[in-house]
Amino acid sequence: MRFMVHDRIFKQEPINQHTIGFSSTPLSRLLIKGGEKSMAAFILLMSGPACLATWHSLSARVLETGNNISPFEVANGKDLWSYAEANPDFRELFNNAMGCHARLTVQATIEGCPEVFDGVESLVDVGGGNGTALSLLVKAFPWIRGINFDLPHVVAVAATSDSIENVGGDMFMSIPNADAAFLMCVLHDWDDEECIKILKKCREAIPEDKGKVVIVEAVLEEDKEDDEIGGVGLMLDTALMAITNKGKERTLKEWSYVLRQSGFTRFNVKPICAVRSVIEAYP
């Protein structure tokens, strides 16, 4: 407990003259299952055997570069997406973990730049998982009609509502039409070539005159050496190297490249109170 008190996970408090007790802090409250800001599922995912084993196979990223095989696949026999499809328990944990992340990041997006959703009547969440992010968005902006788009086996267990339609499909093939496409922590799972394919499909799905793509991702700033938020982004970049086949976080220059190559004429970046930023891209 000394260690956890020192790191502010718990707080030590006197109960009486001879007894001390421990109480929760904002950090430990993140570990409470079912809490409003719970990150319990995310911690369980990243510290579970499937993800933890990837770090013991990290050399595969160097030794097997010609095969584009990830440490996750070396450790578990399948890439992340195939493993999730074949293992229902892992799939449920993964979806819940992404839901934990969505609750924090979407709230920061809503509070930091609500104007992004002005005039958006329909929004397709590409790679929306169990629908957590989209449900928060349509609650905050009730004029939006939401489309939760992901692989069929993912949306099959997503919650349903009057304001959200769950649609199964493949984002590399086609994406449902909407005023705007929303991608949160999706593009960082893929290399530039695959990102461009996804973004081109998003561009096809939105109106030429008023459509846009809203991307919530990290924008790395390599020049800032003493920056805690930037350090978290670099840590996430390393995690993507271990878990995905070719995923990575991107710098502003790298974002500019994939967006221009996808046919977008302009974009802007808005920082929010999170590791991520909000990128608006226009045809």
Automatic annotation (TrEMBL):
Residues 55-264 form the O-methyltransferase C-terminal domain. The keyword Secreted does not apply. InterPro entries: COMT-like, COMT_C, SAM-dependent_MTases_sf. It holds the Pfam family Methyltransf_2. It comes from Gossypium tomentosum (Hawaiian cotton). One of its GO terms (molecular function) is O-methyltransferase activity. SUPFAM superfamilies: S-adenosyl-L-methionine-dependent methyltransferases. Keywords: Methyltransferase, S-adenosyl-L-methionine, Transferase. Belongs to the class I-like SAM-binding methyltransferase superfamily. Cation-independent O-methyltransferase family. GO terms for biological process: methylation. This is O-methyltransferase C-terminal domain-containing protein.
